[in-house]
């Protein structure tokens, strides 16, 4: 088994004289074993998901393709949401979960989604409103639950 490896190194702070120029560091290459999944869900179900190929990065073009696919699925599953007014999307990046290979990641994802009821999604999405209000009331300051 080969583990999926991530390169999350942070660049060090540099101490310099006034006339010195900061050293430039090359961005690390994308790890070849990285697997990413994009997930779009509503308050009742998963609308669309897609696993990127190993080493494939999410680009603007790829992200737009995913949005288009999600809109097509949303039209098929929930036509009532298509012409709805107001915001209906939230973008979130979560911490990475590590698996030994793409198959293990897909299996874990499918097990997770199969174990969730529509009430799970509705509860989580409805909790966002109180979180947003709490964030606004605290002027964007950090808080725990």
UniProtKB/TrEMBL annotation:
<dbReference type="GO" id="GO:0046975">
    <property type="term" value="F:histone H3K36 methyltransferase activity"/>
</dbReference>
<dbReference type="GO" id="GO:0000014">
    <property type="term" value="F:single-stranded DNA endodeoxyribonuclease activity"/>
</dbReference>
<dbReference type="GO" id="GO:0015074">
    <property type="term" value="P:DNA integration"/>
</dbReference>
<protein>
    <submittedName>
        <fullName>Mariner Mos1 transposase</fullName>
    </submittedName>
</protein>
<dbReference type="GO" id="GO:0003690">
    <property type="term" value="F:double-stranded DNA binding"/>
</dbReference>
<dbReference type="GO" id="GO:0044774">
    <property type="term" value="P:mitotic DNA integrity checkpoint signaling"/>
</dbReference>
<dbReference type="GO" id="GO:0000729">
    <property type="term" value="P:DNA double-strand break processing"/>
</dbReference>
<dbReference type="GO" id="GO:0044547">
    <property type="term" value="F:DNA topoisomerase binding"/>
</dbReference>
<dbReference type="InterPro" id="IPR036397">
    <property type="entry name" value="RNaseH_sf"/>
</dbReference>
<dbReference type="GO" id="GO:0006303">
    <property type="term" value="P:double-strand break repair via nonhomologous end joining"/>
</dbReference>
<dbReference type="GO" id="GO:0042800">
    <property type="term" value="F:histone H3K4 methyltransferase activity"/>
</dbReference>
<dbReference type="GO" id="GO:0003697">
    <property type="term" value="F:single-stranded DNA binding"/>
</dbReference>
<dbReference type="InterPro" id="IPR001888">
    <property type="entry name" value="Transposase_1"/>
</dbReference>
<dbReference type="GO" id="GO:0000793">
    <property type="term" value="C:condensed chromosome"/>
</dbReference>
<dbReference type="Pfam" id="PF01359">
    <property type="entry name" value="Transposase_1"/>
</dbReference>
<dbReference type="GO" id="GO:0035861">
    <property type="term" value="C:site of double-strand break"/>
</dbReference>
<dbReference type="GO" id="GO:0005634">
    <property type="term" value="C:nucleus"/>
</dbReference>
<dbReference type="GO" id="GO:0031297">
    <property type="term" value="P:replication fork processing"/>
</dbReference>
<dbReference type="InterPro" id="IPR052709">
    <property type="entry name" value="Transposase-MT_Hybrid"/>
</dbReference>
